[in-house]
Structure prediction request, 172 residues.
Amino acid sequence: MRNQLGPKWLPFWQGRFPGQLPQNIEYPDVLDRDRFELEGNELIVVDLGHTDTDDTTGLFVPSVGLVVAGDAVYNEVHLYLAESSAEGRREWLAALDKIESLGPREVVAGHKRPGNDDSPRHIEQTRRYIRDFEQVLGKTRTTQELYETMRGLYPDRVNPGALWSSARALRP
Prediction:
């Protein structure tokens, strides 16, 4: 979190949320273990590695079959792939496999269209989007072409700005 909100990234976020961020950011303490208990339920921190950024984690609550997937799973939102190299996208796919292997009944996505359900099917939909992006990236030559092709494949997803950022970063 310090890496994502520290001096390197703070101007990026301040530009997107002018006047909305505190002057002094309080960071949570790092856990010294990978599990803890809350109201009698064990919560397990799951290291997911690179997804839409480095060092993504999720939270698994086995007693209720819940995964809070953070930025690993998107729910009807264009993925932010601007920080993902080909290796990063492979790591993201591995993170999705890891989440799926937990056998969740509910998956809370870090980026979600308001009102959508928390079905585990969003794991596969995120996986498919990454694979489609990889194929389109290999077949297109311009930012605009990459953007338009992905918009054509996923016309109903929200936040096309994330797709535009991704296209600009990976097909300049």
